[in-house]
What does this fold into?
Amino acid sequence: MKFNTKAIHGGQKYEETTGAVMTPVFQTSTYAQSSPGVNKGYVYSRAANPTRTALENAFASIENGTRGFAFSSGLSAIDCVLRLLKPGDEVIAGNDLYGGTYRMFTRLFHKYGLNFKFVDLGEISNVTNAVSDSTKLIWIETPTNPLMKIVDILGVTNAIKNKDTTILIAVDNTFATPYLQRPLDLGVDIVMHSATKYLGGHSDLVMGALMVKDEELAEELHFIQFAAGAIASPMDSFLALRGIKTLHLRMQRHCENGLAIANFLKEHKQVSDVYYPGLESHPNHEIAKKQMDDYGGMVSFRLKDESKKATFKFLESTKLFTLAESLGGVESLVNHPSTMTHASIPEEERVKIGITDSLVRLSVGVEDIDDLLDDLAQALER
Ligand SMILES: *Cc1c(COP(=O)(O)O)cnc(C)c1O
It folds into this structure.
């Protein structure tokens, strides 16, 4: 199946007892047994629930994996991956990470004896130089949040797997989605999503996803999901499954609108830098072109007037772009990383990687592009 078909049919079949085309919300915690231990494949909903199974099969299908897992949040999906490790193990991660991931690594798992090295993954040699005997996991985000840097996934997997095949490589594919890039096909072991964002797509749930190809790894992750218990609920699973069925349609429009807005901002006299991997001026454009099928709906930029006052005036002046955290929904959002999504990163670190007060991040929705451009134009004129 091609991607657009998988988004709708991947891993799905109609419900057996009624023929319902859409898997219903199986809002149940437990399942009748005809004799102790004799059941219809479901025992208790922390272990498995039919609505969640349908979603997890869709997750596996769209990322070209064999198994998928649905969690109560993106962070609980990451938490599940880190629980594969043990004290003394080391993780190498990018230095331009989602704020909550950085917070979990440095303030939670660091306490339990895991060590973290943050490097600029833009240079493959930074990764290979950082690898030690204790390295067990490489954590990649691409495009990065909020600076839209691109990591060469195949470059990293080739360099690492040639050296040591026991090191796991994980990609947070939240920004790109499998519509744009499929890391499992590039030799990555685990794909993670905040399904809160594009997979759900309607800003109406919080959810995480993991997808893998390897059966043994799948069993380990399933054990942790079951034993730690951070599962997605039946209702949220239903909503996410419904969201995935239009992922390809939404992403196509997100990409069209994202590029149009990046081009508009690039030419605007009040704007200095624009961060969008689809622009030829983007420093990683060539890798993006090779690795991604299109460039997505996330655009960051800086105003020429770098004062906090000017930036706040813009953020308070948009009408269609709602000032809010999160991203990936049908509606357009605007965000101020340094005070909102990335406030948990210490100021010194933030400034070092370029997340200053003048930086603005847009999640470009699927509205009419003329209305979105008008809104940005009026807010920039104020
Ligand atoms: C939102 C986000 C997360 C965290 O996911 P939650 O669903 O909020 O727990 C992780 N990574 C990225 C890139 C995100 O945007």
Summary: The pocket of pyridoxal-5'-phosphate is lined by residues 73-75, 98, 100-101, 141, 145, 172, 174-175, 194, 196-197, 206, 208 (CB under 6 Å). The radius of gyration is 21 Å. The first strand starts at residue 67 and ends at 71.
